Structure prediction request, 249 residues.
Amino acid sequence: MPSITDVERVLHHIRVKLYPNYLPKVEGAYIARTDSDKTLSMEEVCAIMKTRAGFTGKLEDLIDYVHQYNDEVAYQLCDGFAVNNGYYSIYPNIGGTFNSVNEAHNQAKNPISFRFGIRSGLRKLIDKISVDITGLADTSGWIDKFTDTDENSVNTLYTAGDQFVIHGHKLKIAGDDPGVGLYFVPVDDPSKAVKVSRIAKNTPTEIIGIAPKTEWVENHIEIRTQYAGSGTTLKTPRVITSSFVLEEA
Prediction:
């Protein structure tokens, strides 16, 4: 039976599902992935501050202040400053290499990106998190990771025209059904799904392509395929949807 101290320590819960472990040189039968398809917007977090945390000011003012703060943070980042809010830091990063001190910066060779680092405020909360295993995930196929290689971002955002890499299980796009393909699907209007027209690599564990533009901020990744993991294809496509939401930059 947990003690009173143990109960007080657990303030947060993260739900996860277990997936078969196919990672090389990693022991254990399963790996855990968060079981959530919801990404909170800044406006939603502000509304929660009002209802849960008891913020006493006007919600409209709070949203406006946070917008102004975020805009100023972005401005300072673009001037080369790192920003630390006590929970995480954000800092600009220049990729690639230079051959001499006189070589000019080239965005294609030395892409600019922004990286995040966890700070002490967030580290201290880790001990107060309980992980709840909700069961085994659907193993007929899943998307594990989406990487925008130009932005160096994982499962968070992408820019139309950038190269992306998707990793997962039983992903391969196959079949003659007209609906088969890889789609970027707007969360607020799935009927406006955009099919990826440029795919460079298509295997059961990895798909590489060029991201399309959807004109919507939040999007799921959706793979519609008749691939069954063997030489025989399915009669109708199965759908694999990302558990995470991507933001179109």
Q: What stands out?
A: Residues 59-78 form the longest helix (20 residues).
